[in-house]
Amino acid sequence: MKLLSFEVDGSQRFGAWVEGGVVDLTQRLGAEFPDLLSVLQAQALPRIAEVLKGAKPDFDLENITFLPVIPSPPKIICIGVNYEEHRSEIGREPTLKPPVFGRFSNSQVAHLGVIPLPPESEKLDYEGEIAVIIGKAGRRIPVDQVWDYVAGYAPYNDASVRDWQGHTHQWTPGKNFLRTGGFGPWMSTADEFGNDPELHLSTRLNGMEVQRATSRQMIFSIAELITYCSTFTQLEPGDVIVTGTPGGVGARRKPQLFMKHGDVVEVEIAEIGVLRNRIEKEA
Ligand SMILES: O=C(O)C[C@H](/C=C/C(=O)C(=O)O)C(=O)O
């Protein structure tokens, strides 16, 4: 299933993309589940699958406004330096454990939303990534059991304000400018894949491919990341783990390639879909 959050006529809803459009699940199940997060919290994905059997779309994609897949995740845990090509382009020493940092939920932006280029920056960069959405609470999850805890996967753009990321050795400010973290268009539920799926990730800037990798190239696998993160914190349904970006970021190109007003950035997971955002100067 491809599940999404969206708005129609100012009302926030959740639904499923099926061939031909969007099935409105708020209309069918809203009394029980106000949003996609509550579906995950109730572990009600099988219920959604039941409701979707034979359901006809209610909206064309053109008639909805996308919201971030989970608009307010309990936690957004980001992983840095998780592909060898990126590690070597930034000249970092390998680490025995994954670098971890956080994003706030208001740093997210939906598919087709505008990523603002803040007046404080001349170095807004893209980072195409695979997001893992957690479907079940767990602490110290053994590596061979992590797949029971995954609800699905989605494209993510961990767009980064490099000037602010570089102020100190903490990356948080540069990773949390408002509406820089693209999340969408939808999550594909884990049952569409086997355990440990190979997902094919690419990033395009104005149609030019700038990043390409698969989940097999991660330094710390999705399973290892879930085990690691669930050791220092309790993972909860709706938490998002953003698994790191491959080589090819704009800051490390020669010449550098930062995003500017009018650019269109796309992050694609071939098995899931394309997340597209336009860059606009923030007034
Ligand atoms: O500055 C660094 O060493 C790493 C930093 C962040 C990387 C990520 O967020 C990631 O790898 O996904 C960077 O490349 O600027």
TrEMBL record:
Please give one Gene Ontology molecular function term for this protein.
hydrolase activity
Q: Which InterPro entries match?
A: FAH, Fumarylacetoacetase-like_C, Fumarylacetoacetase_C_sf
Q: Report the domain of life of the source organism.
A: Bacteria
Specify the Fumarylacetoacetase-like C-terminal domain's residue ranges: 75-279
Query: Pfam families, alphabetically?
Result: FAA_hydrolase
Q: Which UniProt keywords apply?
A: Hydrolase, Metal-binding
- Family under the similarity heading: Belongs to the hydratase/decarboxylase family. Belongs to the FAH family.
PANTHER family registered for this protein in UniProt: FUMARYLACETOACETATE HYDROLASE DOMAIN-CONTAINING PROTEIN 2A, FUMARYLACETOACETATE HYDROLASE DOMAIN-CONTAINING PROTEIN 2A-RELATED
Q: What is the protein's name according to its record?
A: Fumarylacetoacetate hydrolase family protein
Species of origin reads: Pseudomonas ogarae (strain DSM 112162 / CECT 30235 / F113)
